[in-house]
Amino acid sequence: MTVLNPYLNFRGQAREAMEFYASVLGGTPTFSTFGEFGMNQDPAEADQVMHSMLQTPGGMTLMAADVPAQMEYQPGTNVHISLSGDDVDELRGYFDGLAAGGTVVEPFVAAPWGDTFGMLIDPFGIRWLVNAAGQPA
């Protein structure tokens, strides 16, 4: 089985972001720092996150890291994370939690294709698509 996991990059906010995602999605994130592995070129970055992983009770996996100063970092609109399933209430809870302190782009409401769908930008600038499958007619 092949698994596709989102991997997010931040500039000094990976720990805070992953703790936020854990508070919304559940689970406990793990963290490895650059300093633990002697991978920091700048001593000021020793405590930054080299790798983090969050595995949620619902089976989702999210990974993240801080990008060191010597590497290019351009946050933008090229990444969206999609949450989908058939439990509208569960997905509404995720949507509301992720939107707290962020921006709702499209509210989580009935969509023309029969699902419940919404789009948001979380407090860390990450774009989310949330879709709850409609009930068969």
UniProtKB/TrEMBL annotation:
Glyoxalase/fosfomycin resistance/dioxygenase domain location: 10-128
Gene3D superfamilies the record matches: 2,3-Dihydroxybiphenyl 1,2-Dioxygenase, domain 1 (3.10.180.10)
Pfam families: Glyoxalase
Signal peptide bounds: none
Protein name: VOC family protein
Upper taxonomic lineage: Bacteria, Bacillati, Actinomycetota, Actinomycetes, Micrococcales
